[in-house]
Amino acid sequence: MVFEGLKVYRGDDNKLRLFRPMLNMNRMASSAKKACLPAFDQPEFLECIRRLVEIDQDWVPHSYNASLYIRPTFISTEQSLGVKKPCRALLYVIMCLAGTYFNTNAASLWADPKYIRAWKGGTGDCKMGGNYGCSLFALDEAVDNGCQQVLWLYGDDHQITEAGTMNVFLFWINEDGEEELATPPLDGIILPGVTRQSILDLTRNWGEFKVSERYLTMSQLCSALKQQRVKEMFGSGTACMICPIRHIAYNGQVRNLSNIILGFKKTSVEVEVSTQGFYSSKSVKVLISKLLKV
């Protein structure tokens, strides 16, 4: 089973807009290929979603804090049990209302290297149910330790990969003294998030600081925190949009980031959506958190 997640927003002009939906279609096609599910017509499926939203448009909230969540889903419908490539499959869509993801302004994370979310050669870069099901035990332990989510680590050097279901960003002064926005690279264990890609596109366009896709380790983060080189750390995703990280519990200690969270300066940024039909020549106004300089 593979799936996607995207939202439809109601703008100030009362028009409904999907945010970069073809990126979701492309990612779902990639996930389906790895699951040996059949290929599907991406533009046609997107048009079906558009028509569904059009029919159910009254469900889209008149609010900046809520939206209509769309869950495209692709499952095998074989008539027998067995571990094999499916010959039959069902592609369908579920929709529901969505509000604020966390009940606080910043997330607390629990990092324990005994659990890993994904591994090289696996399906960490796909939206598959198994990736999320296996995370629940670690999440339960995180909650027992007073945290909201898991900071997933990988390898002997404790590479930072994802935070819960979010991509991770670190805004800091790096080892070379440069102001840098860094996020782990797409090496097969990181989900290629749509919000992640949008942040990279926007910040690179700003040209105000170095923007990198690079490996980050807990050792580097702890050292930077001790030397007061961390400016902000946050997670990104369709559900949470952008969520600052308040503290990280790691190796028996709590690394507090709340004293460095500067508060996000919200800027209205117009992102052109270059898709066909309903989406062509439309601009989606998104409130994205612009990092403040210290």
Automatic annotation (TrEMBL):
SUPFAM superfamilies: D-aminoacid aminotransferase-like PLP-dependent enzymes. PROSITE patterns: AA_TRANSFER_CLASS_4 (PS00770). Its EC number is 2.6.1.42. One of its GO terms (biological process) is L-valine biosynthetic process. Keywords: Amino-acid biosynthesis, Aminotransferase, Branched-chain amino acid biosynthesis, Pyridoxal phosphate, Transferase. GO terms for molecular function: branched-chain-amino-acid transaminase activity. It catalyses: L-valine + 2-oxoglutarate = 3-methyl-2-oxobutanoate + L-glutamate; L-isoleucine + 2-oxoglutarate = (S)-3-methyl-2-oxopentanoate + L-glutamate; L-leucine + 2-oxoglutarate = 4-methyl-2-oxopentanoate + L-glutamate. Its cofactor is pyridoxal 5'-phosphate. It comes from the Eukaryota. GO terms for cellular component: mitochondrion. The modification N6-(pyridoxal phosphate)lysine is found at K127. InterPro entries: Aminotrans_IV, Aminotrans_IV_CS, Aminotransferase-like, B_amino_transII, BCAT-like_C, BCAT-like_N, BCAT_family. Pfam families: Aminotran_4 (PF01063). Coiled coil: none annotated. Belongs to the class-IV pyridoxal-phosphate-dependent aminotransferase family. This is Branched-chain-amino-acid aminotransferase. The gene is bcat1.
